[in-house]
Amino acid sequence: MEPMGLRAVTLDFGGTLAEGEIDWDEYHMAIHSLLRGRGFSLPLRRVKSSISAALERLRRVRESNRELTLEEVYAYALKRMDIPPTDELLEEIHSLFRRHFRSTPYPCVEEVVRRLSHRYRLAVISNTMSDTPRHVLRSLGLDGYFDVILCSRDLGIRKPDPRIFHHVLEQMGVKPEEAVHVGDSLEADVEGALKAGMRAIWVRGSQPQSWSGPTIKTICELPEMLETLGNPLGREQI
Predict the structure, then answer these.
(1) For residue 121, what is the enclosing H or E element?
(2) Of 30, 49, 59, 169, which sits 20 to 30 A from 36 (CA to CA)?
């Protein structure tokens, strides 16, 4: 039986569409300054130890492919500091995260997204406790090209759990066999997509691992790779 034509492409964000990093020490010092400005004069070491405990809790939660929101993580840290975790304070902490998170889109991302949008329905599926991917794509003027931009914080589950893929596909009205997921993690992106019944393309970059399936070095090669996976249906046929 011939594979169905591709109708949708879902994309990972970090390591696939953009490179992202944050200086955690700098960010946590900014939180310390924020708290001092709100009248909470705690030693920096207590702030850092409370945040470290919260991040360790996040790590344990993620071992079972569950996710917390950034607000949940830092609410836990604030409680350890005996500071009320108000919505206003947590939003300020999240805003600080967005400012300190440095996200650099890969050079061809804008061209690739616009090109693919003429032939496929597009979505982003990102493992993150923050909503940074939405803000980055909005700042680039690319958010309108995506039917869905989903962060794992939205559902409380992470890739490779098939449910996160199925949730996005249901929102798009697309069957798993009509979609392909593209990402740089063999476990989260490739294995997760295959378990969900989708096709997968691995963005290898400079990683030493190998995979026998469809592989590209960077997102720049994606349009040509998609041509080999199935005859795309035009948007007017979707």
Answers:
(1) strand 121-126
(2) 59
Contact 192, 127 (CB under 8 A): no
| 32-to-6, 44, 74, 94, 114 alpha-carbon distances in Å | 49, 6, 12, 14, 41
Q: Which of 179, 198, 199, 195 is nearest to 187 (CA)?
A: 195
Distance CA(225)–CA(232), nearest Å, equals: 12
| Spatial contact of 93 and 31, defined as CB atoms under 8 Å apart | yes
DSSP code of residue 103:
E
For 9, the 3-state DSSP assignment is: strand
Cα separation, 131 vs 133, in Å, equals 6
- The b/e string for 40-64 (b: 16+ C-beta within 10 A; e otherwise) is beeeeeebbebbeebbeebeebeee
Coil vs helix vs strand at 66:
strand
Report the first-to-last Cα separation within the chain, whole angstroms: 21
| pLDDT tens digits along 66-110 | 999 999 999 999 999 999 999 999 999 999 999 999 999 999 999
Burial class (CB in 10 A: 0-12, 13-18, 19+), 9: buried
Distance, in Å, from the CA atom of 198 to the CA atom of 61, rounded to the nearest integer, reads 26
What residue type is 233 in one-letter code? L
